[in-house]
Inverse folding.
């Protein structure tokens, strides 16, 4: 009896994953502030290790990631990136991107825009929304926990749902190599 | 119970000579198994109901496979292997009937052979069934139709596994310890379970494999 | 049923009383050894005695009742005044979801099953339920389900999509995180437990009644439980399937499309499945309560029940019709109008068997000499409150009226009148009635009356205003409302009623606590009642009856004369053996050995519970869980079939003649 | 949180009906109908209520009497049971019970028939001149689209519906996300908005007035604040309102308002909201055309005042927790200008 309680509780604690189920809607501005020191390259001259990438707290929060998913289609990101498979814009399910796949790099890409078609959304989105979008974008190639990533959406089936992507082997979409180059 | 204060003698029924087990519907285990089958039958009935309910949402039945190169072909489940599997499943009832009758007459040797055969049949059926999923011609997460037929087939596979695992356990016991009354009863109850597995698949098979052929369009 | 073939196998002899007394003492000693409860913590985990398991069900269910009551109290505090900010929407949604889920799955059904698992074997005069180990497994499955719900709730993973969890709101697209997954797996666990208990009850009643207790002599409470158990068997698979399909839609790497309208799925399919369970569920909770009432009223009216046959037929009719009216929960959805008319008819029709029961009870009271003891007072409270709930139910059967009050506080009021009035009031009556059997002591009558008075007043104060609120536009499941709606006064009234109910429950707890040790002692049959559970000491010994008896009427302790009623002897005193009788006429048929106490049920429940928890995170938990469960089952089977027992010649005690 | 609907003059459970509004404000009670449909249901309800009350009184009186008869036989110990048959008494009981059952069946049949008649009256009318309104439920607001054969006559509004009195209206109901339910108690029974199952219902409002409703199917965090106000206007008033809605938004007149429009179109607002006559056309959130003439903000979360509007833009999450609108970090003068501009959107 007692050990059942203990076991179940231990498992639940593990399951809780602290931040995943948090539903604090009100986010303080500093918490969701813009990143600093964004680098586009991981190449780093000299012996010192490059400073670590920013951690996006929203990646651990299921509500924030699903909100990112909602915004991704509401703001018509799908217009160019489709459901991650790419189209006019590059695919997002393969995590190999010119401008980096770290949270702050994605933030910068959304904010500043990128050559050859990615608009700068800096003025049009709040930092909270950008962080949510960045968290979702990373979930598309399995870079966040499958327990936090959104499940299948209530739409036509397209790519595998974000929570079903093998983090070790993200998809490599069959797209013309020209789309890979700027 | 306090005996009556009166001094008159009281009738007492002595049941000591009653048999210590029953091999048929007189046994509580037999009833327990039957009720389990009620539960399972209800579940399959609801699944079939869900199948027909979902069907109302489609104009083409089964829905075309948009991601396959043969998008315009109706991906009805292929019959070849599933028909073989149905035949094998039906045949598998034979050793169970044999075991059932032999257990009733307490012929231990025959029961052992029949049960061994039944386990082998079960193993073959499970192996076939795992391949059979391919003949459904869809993936479970394609759409609601594929989800339902995968679930029905999978749940039936689950019963095949459970039935075979149970038979395996029982057969092992028979070889190690021989058959007493209690295990003769278990053999007979197990047989009822297996008949049900065979019988229900005839219905489910008809729904999954012939349903789309008899009424190709969505409207019933 | 060829009982005649067995006739030569039983001997009828006349035994002198002095011999009987000696034999009884001898049996007491021997049976005590065979049936004794195992000791220690491990023993506690292994104990398969139906009375202990029944009590555990009841106590655990009441713990959950208390927790869910506290949640309800918090919700009433939040709604007491307009624009309150005590609970935010997230917390409030979790509270009402966990409240509803607990009350339906962790309190109402298990408490009724617990009562039945305690009393059904006693009332049919046998020593234990048909499958004692499965029974123990059922309890642990229930406990694991409850721990899953409250463990997740404590960690802020509490389900928040309502106790009905309609997709798409509960689906993968709109319910992020693992909250709904915990809910759906916990449903499966508790339903497994309900199904196990149902199978136990049916098999015990069908095969283990004492000789002479033919179908038309079964006590009405037992009949009610048989009908309930059959309803569980046909209803529970539907909710397991609904929650299972929902879990599959959500589960990583499975992600099916059952409830995705864009891929041919249908959210109304979920509602159909859910209510195909959900409506019978109401009767699964209510019918056992009618069993309490049918059992209590004759005892306190001091006469046999009026209309045994119509009462039994009403139970069976209710059981059938209950499966034909689930759509009245969906009148506001786009389902075909013609179908709705059919379900209106069925919903109105179910009032007939319930009316028959009500009239038979009143007739029994009318034809008897009612004794105003606490149990009867609770039953009278039940009649008052359930009549209101039942009549608002008739209103809800009408499509136009239902479309007005559906999903409003009118419905909240209606089903609390039906479920608290229809089930909890008789349950309290039954507890006051049977407490002496459990403990050998009475609950305090005066505290009991205070408990009733406060609970009755508090209940009506809480829930009656909700009818009016609903008709004035207050919808269900709102975490707040604005002052301008004018709902403030009635809500404050309702919340103050909740305080009164809380005080009443504290009185009840105090009463149980006090009476357990110091209550007035009760003999084996303190109410001078008629059914077999009163034919054995209070509390009953582990083997229930030293010598089984036969019955010759519906009220054996009132009508059968002790001199001519036969006793039964000859069951083994070396192993746990019970007498099996024929289904219809209850002729002695064969002896049936029950399993010993065992740790395997606990371990199986543990494995199953862990697999279901794992299934929230990855489908791999399913084959793994099955594998481990098979391992445990092999051990269960092997250890339960020790050859030494099976190969022994059956030792039977000779007759005492 | 002070979600106070200052302008909701009508109190529902209190007597707030005599209002000084031109069109008498009405409330949200199913027994105070303002439309044909609700009136039929109210009649039916009173019929059911009277029969049920009679049955209730009858049963309770019988129960009380049956117990009252035993008042003289109380004893501390339970008296012996009366097991011997009393044929005469039982005969009476049989008669009593069977007549009660017969009466029950008859009454239930009467209720059933009466119910079917109401059901038929409420059936779909044939109304060629019906006004068609498409109502789309969103988490947690209502999108209202007035259909017209001419595309440029189609216009949208949110969370408020204007209906012409005396004319049939077809409401086409659909949901964009989860299940919602449309319910205005004084007008009609509710109808669920189920994804994948678009449906329709008919209304014919008779009495001009203001009617309140809200989403009746649990739909998530802000289910409580998914409210709806229905204005039943006289046909002339309705025509005037409709004409005004079909026009593009008025041009801002002051510099500050112009700056406000600049802010609206260049910052976050434009990602979700639309204003007719401007480049803002997103349908993610409610349209803001006619915002200033609405009574509430946030689908009934709070009254539409300047102060509330400002707070709503800056921090909607503390006013309606969970709402889809994000907190906005704009300079104070931009917000002032924005609020100023939004208040010109009559």
């Amino acid at each position: 009896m007692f050990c059942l309680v203990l076991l179940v509780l231990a498992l639940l604690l593990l399951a809780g994953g602290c931040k995943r189920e948090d539903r604090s809607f009100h986010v303080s501005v500093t918490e969701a502030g813009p990143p600093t020191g964004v680098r586009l390259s991981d190449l780093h001259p000299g012996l010192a290790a490059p400073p670590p990438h920013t951690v996006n707290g929203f990646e651990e929060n299921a509500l924030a990631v699903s909100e990112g998913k909602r915004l991704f289609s509401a703001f018509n990101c799908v217009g160019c990136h489709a459901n991650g498979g790419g189209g006019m814009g590059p695919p997002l399910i393969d995590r190999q991107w010119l401008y980096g796949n770290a949270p702050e790099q994605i933030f910068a890409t959304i904010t500043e825009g990128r050559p050859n078609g990615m608009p700068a959304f800096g003025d049009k989105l709040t930092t909270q929304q950008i962080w949510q979008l960045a968290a979702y974008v990373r979930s598309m190639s399995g870079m966040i926990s499958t327990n936090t990533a959104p499940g299948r959406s209530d739409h036509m089936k397209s790519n595998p749902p974000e929570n079903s992507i093998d983090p070790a082997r993200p998809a490599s979409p069959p797209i013309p190599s020209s789309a890979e180059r700027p | 119970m306090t005996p009556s204060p009166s001094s008159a003698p009281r009738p007492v029924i002595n049941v000591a000579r009653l048999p210590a087990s029953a091999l048929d519907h007189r046994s509580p285990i037999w009833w327990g198994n039957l009720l389990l089958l009620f539960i399972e039958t209800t579940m399959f009935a609801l699944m079939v109901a869900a199948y027909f309910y979902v069907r109302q949402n489609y104009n083409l039945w089964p829905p075309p496979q948009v991601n396959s190169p043969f998008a315009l072909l109706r991906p009805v489940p292929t019959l070849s292997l599933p028909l073989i599997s149905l035949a094998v499943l039906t045949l598998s009832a034979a050793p169970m009937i044999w075991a059932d009758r032999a257990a009733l007459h307490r012929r231990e040797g025959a029961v052992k052979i029949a049960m061994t055969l039944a386990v082998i049949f079960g193993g073959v059926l499970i192996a076939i069934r795992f391949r059979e999923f391919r003949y459904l011609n869809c993936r479970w997460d394609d759409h609601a139709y594929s989800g339902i037929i995968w679930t029905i087939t999978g749940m039936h596979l689950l019963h095949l596994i459970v039935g075979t695992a149970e038979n395996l356990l029982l057969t092992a016991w028979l070889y190690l310890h021989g058959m007493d009354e209690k295990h003769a009863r278990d053999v007979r109850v197990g047989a009822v379970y297996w008949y049900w597995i065979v019988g229900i698949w005839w219905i489910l098979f008809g729904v999954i494999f012939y349903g789309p052929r008899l009424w190709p369009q969505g409207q019933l | 049923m060829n009982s005649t073939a067995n006739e030569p196998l039983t001997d009828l002899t006349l035994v002198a009383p002095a011999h009987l007394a000696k034999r009884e003492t001898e049996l007491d000693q021997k049976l005590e050894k065979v049936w004794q409860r195992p000791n220690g913590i491990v023993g506690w985990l292994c104990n398969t005695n139906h009375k202990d398991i029944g009590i555990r069900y009841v106590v655990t269910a009441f713990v959950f009742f208390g927790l869910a009551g506290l949640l309800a109290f918090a919700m009433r505090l939040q709604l007491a005044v307009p624009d309150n900010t005590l609970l935010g929407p997230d917390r409030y949604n979790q509270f009402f979801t966990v409240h509803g889920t607990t009350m339906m799955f962790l309190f109402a059904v298990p408490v009724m099953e617990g009562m039945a698992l305690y009393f059904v074997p006693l009332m049919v005069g046998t020593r234990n339920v048909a499958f004692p180990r499965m029974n123990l497994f059922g309890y642990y499955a229930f406990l694991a389900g409850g721990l899953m719900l409250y463990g997740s709730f404590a960690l802020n993973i509490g389900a928040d999509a309502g106790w009905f969890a309609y997709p798409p709101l509960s689906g993968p697209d709109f319910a992020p995180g693992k909250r709904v997954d915990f809910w759906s797996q916990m449903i499966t666990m508790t339903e497994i437990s309900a199904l196990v208990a149902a199978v136990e009850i049916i098999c015990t009643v069908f095969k283990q009644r004492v000789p002479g207790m033919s179908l038309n002599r079964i006590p009405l409470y037992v009949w009610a439980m048989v009908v309930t158990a059959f309803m569980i068997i046909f209803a529970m698979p539907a909710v397991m399937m609904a929650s299972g399909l929902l879990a599959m839609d959500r589960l990583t790497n499975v992600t099916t499309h059952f409830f995705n309208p864009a891929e041919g799925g249908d959210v109304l399919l979920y509602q159909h499945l859910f209510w195909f369970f959900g409506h019978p569920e109401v009767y699964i909770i209510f019918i056992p309560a009618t069993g309490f009432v049918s059992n209590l009223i004759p005892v306190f009216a001091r006469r046999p029940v009026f209309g045994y046959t119509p009462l039994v037929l009403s139970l069976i009719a209710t059981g059938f019709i209950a499966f034909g009216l689930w759509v009245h929960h969906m009148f506001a959805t786009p389902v075909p109008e013609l179908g709705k008319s059919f379900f209106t008819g069925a919903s109105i029709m179910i009032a007939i068997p319930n009316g028959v029961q009500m009239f038979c009870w009143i007739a029994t009271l009318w034809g008897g000499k009612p004794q105003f003891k606490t149990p009867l007072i609770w039953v009278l409270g039940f009649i008052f409150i359930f009549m209101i709930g039942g009549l608002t139910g008739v209103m809800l059967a009408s499509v136009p009226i239902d479309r007005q009050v559906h999903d409003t506080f009118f419905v909240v009021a209606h089903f609390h009148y039906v479920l608290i009035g229809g089930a909890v009031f008789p349950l309290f009556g039954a507890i006051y009635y049977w407490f002496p059997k459990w403990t050998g002591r009475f609950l305090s009558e005066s505290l009991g009356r205070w408990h009733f008075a406060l609970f009755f007043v508090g209940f009506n104060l809480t829930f009656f205003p909700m009818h009016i609120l609903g008709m004035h536009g207050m919808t269900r499941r709102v975490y707040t409302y604005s002052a301008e709606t004018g709902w403030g006064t009635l809500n404050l009234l309702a919340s103050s009623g909740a305080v009164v109910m809380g005080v009443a429950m504290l009185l009840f707890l105090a009463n149980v606590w006090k009476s357990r040790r110091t209550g007035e002692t009760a003999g084996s049959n303190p109410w001078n009642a008629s059914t077999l559970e009163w034919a054995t000491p209070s509390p009953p010994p582990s083997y229930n009856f030293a010598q089984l008896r036969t019955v010759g009427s519906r009220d054996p302790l009132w009508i059968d004369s002790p001199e001519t009623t036969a006793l039964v002897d000859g069951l083994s005193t070396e192993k746990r053996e019970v007498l099996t009788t024929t289904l219809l006429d209850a002729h002695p048929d064969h002896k049936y050995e029950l399993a010993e106490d065992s740790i395997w049920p606990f371990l199986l429940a543990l494995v199953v519970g862990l697999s279901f928890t794992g299934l929230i995170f990855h489908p791999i938990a399913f084959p793994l869980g099955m594998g481990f469960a098979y391992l445990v089952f092999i051990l269960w089977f092997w250890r339960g079939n020790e050859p030494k027992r099976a190969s022994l010649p059956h030792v039977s005690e000779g007759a005492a003649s | 949180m002070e979600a106070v609907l200052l302008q909701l003059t009508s109190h529902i459970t209190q007597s707030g009906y005599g209002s000084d509004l031109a069109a008498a404000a009405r409330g949200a009670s199913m027994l105070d109908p303002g439309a044909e449909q609700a009136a039929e249901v109210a009649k039916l309800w009173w019929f059911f209520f009277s029969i049920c009350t009679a049955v209730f009184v009858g049963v309770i009186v019988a129960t009380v009497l049956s117990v009252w008869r035993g008042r003289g036989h109380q004893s501390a110990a339970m008296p012996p049971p009366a097991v011997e048959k009393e044929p005469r008494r039982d005969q009476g009981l049989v008669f009593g019970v069977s007549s009660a059952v017969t009466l029950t069946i008859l009454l239930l049949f009467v209720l059933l028939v009466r119910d079917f008649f109401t059901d038929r009256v409420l059936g779909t009318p044939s109304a060629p001149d019906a006004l068609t309104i498409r109502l789309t439920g969103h988490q947690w607001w209502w999108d209202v689209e007035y259909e017209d054969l001419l595309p440029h006559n189609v216009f949208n509004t949110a969370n408020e519906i204007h209906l012409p009195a005396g004319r049939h209206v077809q409401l086409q109901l659909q949901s964009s996300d989860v299940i919602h339910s449309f319910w205005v108690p004084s007008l009609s029974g509710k109808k669920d908005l189920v994804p994948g199952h678009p449906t329709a219902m008919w209304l014919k409002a008779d009495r001009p007035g203001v009617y309140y409703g809200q989403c009746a199917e649990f739909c998530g965090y802000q289910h409580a604040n998914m409210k709806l106000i229905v204005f039943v206007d006289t046909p002339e008033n309705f025509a005037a309102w409709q004409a005004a809605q079909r026009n593009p938004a008025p041009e801002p007149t002051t510099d500050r308002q112009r700056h406000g429009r600049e802010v609206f179109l260049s910052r976050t607002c434009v990602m979700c909201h639309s204003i007719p006559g401007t480049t803002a056309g997103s349908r993610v959130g409610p349209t803001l055309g006619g915002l200033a003439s609405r009574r509430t903000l946030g689908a009934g979360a709070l009254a539409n005042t300047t102060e509330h509007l400002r707070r709503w833009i800056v921090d909607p999450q503390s006013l309606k927790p969970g709402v889809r609108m994000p907190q906005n970090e704009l300079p104070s003068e931009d917000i002032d200008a924005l609020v100023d501009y939004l208040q010109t959107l009559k």
Notes: Chain A has a mean pLDDT of 82. The two ends of chain A are 63 Å apart (CA to CA). The first helix of chain A runs from residue 2 to 16.
